[in-house]
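QA checklist item 7 of 12: single-chain prediction sanity check.
[x] sequence parsed
[x] length recorded as 67
[x] structure emitted
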Amino acid sequence: MWKLWNKLFGWDYIYWTNSADQGVARIMTDFEGNPFYIRYRLTKVIDRIKTSDQVMWLTCKPSKYLK
C-alpha cells in the first residue's frame, strides 16, 4: 500500500524496527524541517530521525531529509 501512496501522493516511507516490533511509517517533517515518523498511532509514539542508519529508507534517499 505504501508504494501506491508514494506514487499517488509523493509521500516518503521508511521501515523501522526495534526489539519488540517493526513496521512501515510515513516520513513527516516538523515546522523546522526535522524528519520524524509516528511509530504507533494509537499511543501516539513519535520518533525523530537523527541519523540515516536509524531506519531503512524505502522510497527516497536519506539526503532528502537529513542535511
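[x] summary fact logged: Residues 2-60 form one domain.
[ ] second reviewer sign-off
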